[in-house]
Fold:
Amino acid sequence: MNTKAKWIVGISGAAFSAFILSALDNPAPKEQGTLSAEVTDKMSEREKELVQLDWSDFSPQIQSSGGNTGNDRTTRRSARN
Amino acid sequence: MTVRQEDQHGTNIDSLTIEVMNCSFYVAVSNSEQPDWKQTVTSLLHYFDSEFSRFKAFNELWRFNEAEQNSTVTVSPVLYDLLKKAENYRILTEGRFSPYMLTQLEQHGYHQSFPFTEAVSAKVPPSIYKLESEPLIFHGDGRITKRTKQKVDLGGIAKGYAVEAVSTWLQQQAHACFGIVDGGGDMAVWSNGEKTWKIGVMDPFDEDREIGAFSIMNGGIATSNTVYRSWLQDGILKSHLLDGRTGKPVKSPIVQTTVITKHCIDAEIGAKVCFMEDPAAIKTVLNKISENYQYVLVTIDGQTINGRSN
Structure:
């Protein structure tokens, strides 16, 4: 029998209900549950590992280099960003 | 603007960029089982912008703020959840974060959305900020009793909440294998392992330069910065960050904080309260919000301090 470990990633279903209300003009569901994803035993150990929280340590940039360093996004916080 | 392209690492992604909530939102996914995901995401973000911005009159937040002290009002499920989360963060951070400082923000000159560099003169000194021990009573059925006379500003927490909502929907309903939601620097990323996101940390003194980077597959990132979000009022430099314990602008050697946690909304609160602690004691306050985190601080003299949870 498969055993399932719940991996809660979501915020409350209220946000999702508003999402639907706004986008599709449907009435909100009565029950406001919690969204969740599952890690099941069908996943490989590698897959299970990957859905866990993961990040590398911050790597300081070499002082002399600047500009675009090939990152996907930057934590830009200027007036319009 | 919508784009289907390969990213810098040759991965095929579909992306959407929209100006909303006073910032630029960038959303990118590997795939979607919801063909109209861009329309849905756009609708959600405009909903948050229209109902929870303090710069717009007659929206739901405005109506809540107009309700009299000690009155009981019924609010939408989203506003109820947002206010409950905000109040919970206030308790968790022992008052450092507070959503009840709209009046103080305006008295310190934050009347308009950015960009602006100078605020109108304070006609009267900022009032003494005093908050009741239980400012809102949540009845569990959509009703809230407003015990406080203070007005609510949901600012950054509403954006973090929106980022998290979009990210969750794209994972759960669109079944995107990997993706990113970036709301002006507040980010949620996820990956099934096919993609590792590389996130650069901006130099607070030169936005065209990065001071470093980290890689992440799943989690939330938020940055707060007092260099760009500051202004002069009566010759005094002020910022958008008020300490909820005093109602006054923070005074800190830190000018930029970046926090990485499991959820974007935790990171958003964490990035704010880092300004309210001595850099050596940052972990004490971040431990109240999340068990797992990493932070990057930049001080006024350009020093970078980084660390993570134990």
User: Anything to note?
Assistant: The longest strand of chain A covers residues 4-7.
